[in-house]
Amino acid sequence: MRGQKSILNKLTCLLMIIVIGFTSLGLTSKEGEKKIHRNITIQNTDVGKLTPKEAIKKLESTYPLKNFNISYNDKNWTIKSEDVDLNYHIEEIVKEAFNYTRSSSKLENIKRKGKLDLKKSHNIKLKATYNEAKLSEELEKICSNINIDAVDATFRVELSGELKRTESKEGKQVDLSRLKEDIYDMINKKKNENINLPVITLYPDVSTKHVKSINSVLGQFSTSFNDSTSRGSNIHVAGEQTSDILLMPGDTFSYNKCTGARNWVNGYKSAPIIVGGKVTNGEGGGVCQVSTTIYNAALLSGLTIDEVHNHSLPSRYAQRGRDATVSYGYTDLKFSNPYTHPIYIKNIVGNGAITSKIYGCDVDRERISIKIVEEYTKNKITVQTYRLFLDEENNIMKKELVNTSVYKSN
Length: 410
Description:
Blueprint: H1 2-24, E1 40-42, E2 45-46, H2 52-62, E3 68-72, E4 75-79, H3 90-98, H4 106-117, E5 122-124, H5 132-146, E6 154-157, E7 163-166, E8 171-174, H6 176-189, E9 195-196, E10 199-202, H7 208-212, E11 216-224, H8 230-241, E12 245-247, E13 252-254, H9 255-259, E14 270-275, E15 278-283, H10 287-300, E16 304-307, E17 334-336, E18 343-350, E19 353-360, E20 367-376, E21 380-390, E22 396-408
Parallel strand pairs: 1-5, 3-9
Antiparallel strand pairs: 1-2, 3-4, 6-7, 8-10, 11-19, 12-18, 13-17, 14-15, 16-17, 18-19, 20-21, 21-22
C-alpha cells in the first residue's frame, strides 16, 4: 500500500513539473498567448510580457515621431515628420515581436521560447522610412533662403584710360550633403535633435584685392591699317572680341576661343588673306593683324607664349619674326599669365590703328627688348625671335628663344 502511494506521489510530482515547464513555455497559459514572450526587445526596449497594445504605447512614448527643427543665426525652420512621411512602423514590428514565438512550426516555437526563458534576448529593430523626394523639397526651401552666389570683382579700362573697379562679395551655401547626413543619422537612431544648419562660405574667383593690384601697363603695341575697307571692319570686330579680358594667375588666353569662327554670322566680311603662300580673298581677312598686335603686347609684357605661328609670307604690318597668324580650328595664338597677379587685355581700335595694352601690377613689370636674328638661304628666310630681360642698366639678365619662323624668300 505504501509502495503504491509512493509511486502515485512521484507521478503527481512529475506531472506537476511537466505542467510547470509547459506553462513557463507559454503553451498552457491562455493569458500568455495574448502577450509578447519574455526577453523580447524592440530597438533595445523591453516589450516582453506586454500585450501588443501596451508595447505599441511604450514604443510610441520612447520613439515619438518628432519634427526636425533647424536653425541658423536668428532663422528657424521646422520640417514636420508627416510632411516627409516619416514612419517607424511600430505596429508592424510589434506584430513581428508578438508572432516570434507563434510561428507555424511548433517545434521552432518551443526552441525560441526555451532560449528566451534562458534569458537569451531577441532584439528587433524598428524600420524607419521616409519620402526622400519630399525631404529634398523641404530642404530646398531652406536652401533658397540662405544660398547666395559669390560675386566676382570686376575691372575695366574705359576708352578714356580711366580704370574702373567693382568690389567682390562672398556668398553662402547650405552644405546640403552634411545636412542630409545629420537628418539621416537622426532617423536611423530614432532620435531627433535640434540641427544647426551647416553653411559654407563661397569665395569669389576674382577678389577685390585682385583687381586693386592692376595699376599699370606692362606692355603695349600698335599697328596701322586702312579703316575704310572690309579688312578694316574685320579688325574692329576681332579687336572688340579679344578685348576687356581678365586673365587670372596661370590662366591661358586663346585667340580662337575669344573670336570663334571668323564668318559672317559672327560679323566678319570677306577680305584678303594669305593661304599657301598666296594672297586671296577669304572670310575674316585682317584678324591676323589683331592677333599679331596682341602677340607683341604679350611679348613685351613678359607673358608666357604657349603657341604662336608665323605667316608663310612676311607681313606688311609687323617685322619678320614678330607676326602671329591664326586660322580657326588649325592654328592659334595662346599665352598664359605667369604672375601672381591678374592681367587685363585692352584693345583700342580706331582712326586706322589698333593698339593692344596689357595691364597688370607694377611689381610684375619687366624691362624687355625683342631681338630678331635672320638667316637667308636661296628659297627661305629663317628668323629666330629672342626676348631679352634687362636690368635697370640694360644688361641682359635672361635671354629666351620665343619662336623660330620660316618665310618664303620670294
